Amino acid sequence: MKNSKKYVEIRKLHNEGYLCEVGLEIQDNIEVMSISSASRNGRDDKKRDTSNLMEQILHRDNLNKAYKKVKKNKGSSGVDGMTVDELLEYLKRNNRQLQKDLIEESYTPMPVRRVEIEKPDGGKRLLGIPTVVDRVVQQAIAQVLTPIYEEKFSETSFGFRPGRSQHQAIEKCKEHINDGYKWVVDIDISKYFDTVNHDKLMSILSKDINDKKVLRLIRKYLQSGVMINGVVAETDIGCPQGGPCSPLLSNIYLNELDKELERRGLRFCRFADDCNIYVKSKRSAERVMKSVTKFLEEELKLKINLNKSKVTRPWKLKYLSFSFYNGKGGIQVRVHPKAIEKLKRNIKEVTSRSNGKSLEWRFQKLKQKLRGWINYFRIANMKTIAKELDQWLRRRIRLCIWKQWKRVRTRFKELKKRGISKQKAWEYANTRRSYWRISKSPIMNIAYKDKDLENLGLISITKYYLRTSC
Known about the structure:
Layout: H1 5-9, H2 53-57, H3 60-73, H4 87-103, E1 112-118, E2 124-129, H5 132-150, H6 166-178, E3 183-188, H7 192-195, H8 198-206, H9 212-222, E4 226-228, E5 231-233, H10 246-263, E6 267-271, E7 274-279, H11 282-298, E8 310-312, E9 322-327, E10 330-335, H12 337-350, H13 359-377, H14 383-405, H15 408-417, H16 422-429, H17 435-438, H18 442-447, H19 450-456, H20 461-469
């Protein structure tokens, strides 16, 4: 454990009376220099020269691009409390000194701020938030290293790579299954980002990077520490999620697994640390599970979660919140039931009858949540699910409306206004049935028809899905 106060004081790059030339001028028409000499097909005709990477990292255009990226991504402050909005002014004052420290290797990254996020399975995902200055430096490093390693990464690796997405990963899985590989080795790496072996990672990096200054700078970031409750803890292993370099470094590390699987001639799909291997028989799957687990634990020094890792069938698989089923024309993609359950929990929070929010607020929140959810799952076949969700959502809204009316007089008045006969309106206004039961009654369906709710601003899951999936 270390005293955290010295880390807050360690970065005093700006000296009073010291005037420095502004080195990060943000211009709309700026052209970032070409870091790559690759040919059009994305491969070099000769091996790259990686002996001067620090010069490329500190190039004015590369730093400008890194600043823009950090500014665009926003995010919270690190342990020094500096916000993204304060970043430009700081860099204008201290850019020359920052570059000097990086070149002379006197630059010291600050510890990351620990943030815990609840996981759907009940666990916690540990994030490490670097300071905004460290995020700029990490982003500049990532921009230079990415084109170097993109040429080396597997075609079946899809996580945190430019031009690749979860949708492409699912389509690749579907392709493997339709080709007859209908047994899946689902490997779960336990706390991957927290267990990456530093020495092994640096050894892998040194094979392709000849600039020792860059290697030592990356090592500094890996060992910069984590601040927890004001106290800094050393980090001997792990690559904390949250920094711009973490996704790239994780892919570089697990590219060793990809190479091993390709060497064995196995079909697989990897998105970050989620890896599925596809084979044709259960016996083969069990053999692959055993041998790949041994490789990960002995060669890459990673831990496998034996409770979650399994040999299974595609229709029992949960991968990136998707699953598969046998349909017309072969294997088709569906939304995993757990993803639907999670969505319903989120909708219940917005449509809780006791939160006292207006319909306008509820409709706006629902629109934000549902559009993002549908855009992610649009590649799945979910017409039936969309209709069922629509019916359930409208019932939730009618429940909220009934609760808002509260008094007998208000209910009677509102029902009459919406075309309900005086007798029925009085009968339902005085009912003692539960809110949930009334929300499904013919009276509420007449008072607030499906079209009426859409006109008020309620999003239709079915219509939006059909529009985005076309």
